[in-house]
């Protein structure tokens, strides 16, 4: 296996060549493999922005970024790597555009592509062990005392793997449909169990479901949910239902990476190197 140490120092000191080398090893940790025939040998053309690898067996050509989240990007890889750090800092796209010196549209697109990689991973992973589940309503203003679901309400469930009493090791959050939650803002145990059916492993030890925010039962889990809802409303100034799940996955990543003995950029780089990109058209499609 090839080993690569990510460059030290601030992102401003990283060279594009270092970032390309890091991506190469993240994409092919065992060495080059042709994406078409899996052959292990190739020739390299270096006349382009990113190296072009030509399979010695089937002659298929692939670039370093083809088939990854970075496919077709015109933004330097070093800026993508800085955006990975920004992802864990819970900042806004406005802040990222200022950091990188790019337009807001470019910053937003980079952020959404990174979130989509997190979404692809989240769809593949299930919670296990002892799992607790609770939920709340995004969009429920304190000024409204009605318990009837309002048009702007977006039900959200959160599940967490519990260790040592009430220590939360890993979480997942999901944007629930109103068909699942019914007409009341107080999300039922039935809705929580539907979340469990989709996001909890079949060999789980047990699932405990708690009512709205689970305030008196599992405060650490409800605190993560409340932080997320506050972040969506106050830091991001509101998120619509179309992209809400992506931002819930973003917050789940922020929590989970803080519990792992891993650095953000190498973790995200491995993820982005093995996940397909989402296009701007797909991100902005209304239906």
Q: Can you offer a commentary on this structure?
A:
It is built from ten helices and seven strands. Helices cover 41% and strands 15% of the residues. A hairpin with a 3-residue loop joins strand 5 and strand 6. The mean pLDDT is 87. The chain folds into two domains: 11-123, no CATH class; 126-237. It has helices at residues 16-27, 77-88, 93-100, 104-124, 178-181, 189-199, 219-235, 241-259, 264-273, 280-284, and strands at 42-45, 52-55, 61-63, 130-138, 154-163, 167-175, 206-209. The strands form two sheets. Strands 6-5-4-7 form a four-stranded mixed beta sheet, with helices on both faces. The termini are far apart. Helix 4 crosses helix 8. With 287 residues, it is of the alpha+beta class.
Quick recap:
The chain has 287 residues and is an alpha+beta fold.
SSE layout and pairings?
Blueprint: H1 16-27, E1 42-45, E2 52-55, E3 61-63, H2 77-88, H3 93-100, H4 104-124, E4 130-138, E5 154-163, E6 167-175, H5 178-181, H6 189-199, E7 206-209, H7 219-235, H8 241-259, H9 264-273, H10 280-284
Parallel strand pairs: 4-7
Antiparallel strand pairs: 1-2, 2-3, 4-5, 5-6
Helix pairs in contact: 1-9, 2-4, 2-9, 3-4, 4-8
């Amino acid at each position: 296996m090839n080993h690569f140490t990510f460059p030290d120092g601030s992102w401003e000191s990283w060279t594009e060549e270092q970032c390309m080398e890091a991506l190469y090893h993240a994409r092919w940790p065992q060495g080059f493999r042709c994406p078409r025939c899996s052959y292990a040998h190739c020739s390299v053309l270096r006349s382009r922005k990113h190296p072009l690898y030509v399979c010695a067996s089937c002659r298929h050509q692939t670039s370093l970024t083809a088939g990854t989240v970075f496919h077709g990007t015109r933004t330097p890889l070093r800026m993508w790597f800085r955006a990975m750090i920004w992802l864990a800092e819970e900042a806004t796209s406005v802040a990222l555009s200022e950091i990188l010196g790019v337009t807001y549209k470019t910053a937003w697109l980079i952020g959404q592509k990174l979130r989509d990689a997190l979404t692809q991973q989240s769809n593949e992973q299930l919670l296990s062990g002892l799992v607790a589940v609770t939920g709340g309503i995004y969009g429920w203003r304190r000024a409204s005392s009605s318990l009837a679901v309002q048009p702007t309400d977006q039900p959200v469930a959160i599940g967490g793997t519990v260790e040592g009493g009430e220590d939360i090791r890993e979480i997942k959050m999901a944007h629930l449909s109103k068909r699942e939650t019914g007409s009341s803002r107080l999300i039922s145990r039935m809705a929580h169990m539907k979340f469990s059916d989709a996001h909890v492993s079949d060999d789980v030890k047990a699932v405990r479901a708690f009512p709205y925010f689970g305030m008196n039962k599992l405060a650490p889990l409800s605190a993560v949910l409340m932080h997320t809802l506050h972040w969506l409303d106050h830091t991001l100034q509101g998120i619509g239902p179309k992209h809400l799940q992506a931002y819930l996955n973003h917050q789940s990543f922020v929590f989970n990476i803080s519990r792992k003995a891993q650095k953000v950029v190498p973790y995200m780089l491995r993820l982005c190197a093995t996940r397909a990109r989402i296009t701007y058209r797909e991100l902005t499609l209304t239906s």
